[in-house]
Write a structure and sequence with these properties.
Layout (H helix, E strand, L loop, with lengths): L2 E5 L13 H11 L3 E8 L5 E5 L2 E7 L8 H19 L7 E5 L5 H11 L4 E5 L5 H6 L5 H17 L2 E4 L2 H10 L5 E3 L6 H4 L12 E8 L6 H13 L4 E8 L3 H11 L4 E4 L4 H9 L3 E4 L13 H8 L3 E4 L4 H8 L3 E3 L8 H10 L1 H18 L2 H12 L1
Parallel strand pairs: 1-2, 1-5, 2-4, 5-6, 6-7, 7-8, 9-10, 9-12, 10-11, 12-13, 13-14
Antiparallel strand pairs: 3-4
Helix pairs in contact: 1-15, 2-3, 3-5, 8-9, 11-14, 13-14
Length: about 375
């Protein structure tokens, strides 16, 4: 029996909500007869061991919040490395280590297993780190840039396999280490869970556009407020729903009041079941990032939830997501530099119900054809076997 040690600092189960890619993967591993143990963290006191669907989860008490300052976040990353290394000595020797970023520092744990215990590892790259915080201005010190870029390349160089979550991420890894063995396996669409043919969809007079996710600097939620402002000027029957938590939430509240936006509703973090219900009552999902090249490589979880739910998809980056929605006619690109053009882009979908329904059906079909959870989990398990 293969024994997999799965390292994910922010592992979530469906009950907790948030991104649950790792849950699907580890559940798939267990279904293939593998023994899986996860080392992760929680915000409660003390160590907790839990079994979930055959997965053994070890929770280490290292609190984290999206509202933490950059320095406090980096400190939690380092704390996790030392705590996980110390705790790993109590676990039976694994066959393989599966480490998923972010943060990049989980790769230090994988390197330790490779160098000290001679155990190979798979490294999953969800974001190009440290290039993302460098371009965002979070890492400015030349010395810190040098160290983190060296660590990134070293992790890639020593990995048995690398899994990239987007074509842009795969290209970025190749640019850092051209000999890396890379498989591109993107985020997943949980179609059976989110497909809404069996759910009651409430009729509403307004056209609902939802942003679901983190309210952080990189997410550029201010752009969504710009769109709301333009729609309000044009008196379009559109309502924007912002659902989530993050460091920018108070700023967003102030901006909504300052701009006098009557067409924006701000909601707190919702569980996965609550998100599923919310998706029933909306027409479109919007994926927003800052206009920075590195963010064009992102593979955001909620984008794929929107496809699985069969929603019109609006994106504001010129990367692979733009190509996906345009080529598959399931959404459109909204230029972050020209929010004033948005009313003309969205108006046809308000005026022509059949056009909206066609694009929504195309979104669901794209989810089934390219991003099925079952198919992508199977690819990862095949890779391990």
């Amino acid at each position: 029996m293969k024994k997999i040690l799965y390292i994910h600092q922010y592992f979530k189960t469906p009950f907790e909500g948030g991104a649950i890619r790792s849950y699907h993967i580890t559940k798939g591993m267990v279904a293939r007869g593998m023994h899986v143990e996860i080392i992760t963290t929680h915000n409660s006191h003390g160590y907790i061991k839990r079994s979930e669907d055959g997965i053994i989860i070890h929770y280490l008490p290292i609190p984290y919040s999206n509202n933490f300052s950059s320095s406090k976040r980096y400190l939690t990353f380092i704390k996790f490395v030392f705590a996980a290394l110390k705790f790993s000595n109590t676990i039976e020797r694994p066959t393989l280590v599966y480490a998923t970023s972010t943060p990049l520092t989980v790769g230090i744990i994988a390197l330790w297993f490779k160098w000290i215990r001679k155990i190979p590892y798979i490294f999953e790259v969800r974001d190009l780190w440290p290039e993302a915080p460098i371009q965002l201005g979070f890492i400015r010190s030349p010395f810190l840039k040098f160290i983190t870029l060296w660590l990134e390349k070293t992790i890639y160089k020593n990995a048995w396999k690398i899994i990239a979550l987007s074509p842009g991420i795969a290209k970025g890894i190749h640019n850092r280490y051209m000999h890396a063995d890379i498989s591109m396996i993107p985020n997943m669409a949980d179609i059976n869970y989110f497909e809404q043919k069996s759910l009651k969809i409430h009729e509403q007079k307004e056209f609902i556009i939802a942003y679901i996710g983190t309210f952080g600097k990189a997410n550029n939620i201010e752009f969504v407020l710009d769109l709301a402002c333009e729609c309000q000027k044009e008196k379009l029957p559109i309502r924007f729903q912002l659902i989530g938590e993050g460091a920018e939430k108070l700023f967003l509240k102030d901006q909504i009041n300052k701009l006098g936006l009557l067409n924006v509703d701000l909601f707190p973090f919702k569980t996965r079941d609550e998100i599923r219900i919310s998706l029933c009552g909306i027409d479109a999902c919007i994926t927003s990032f800052l206009n920075i090249p590195i963010l064009e490589t992102s593979s955001p979880n909620k984008f794929f939830d929107g496809l699985a739910a069969g929603k019109l998809s609006i994106v504001n980056t010129k990367g692979w997501l733009k190509n996906l929605v345009e080529e598959n006619k399931c959404g459109f690109y909204a230029d972050p530099k020209q929010p004033e053009t948005f009313p003309k882009l969205i108006l046809p979908f308000i005026q022509k119900k059949e056009l909206l329904e066609t694009y929504q059906k195309n979104a669901l079909q794209l989810a089934k054809n390219a991003f099925s959870k079952e198919k992508l989990v199977s690819q990862i398990c095949d890779l391990i076997e």
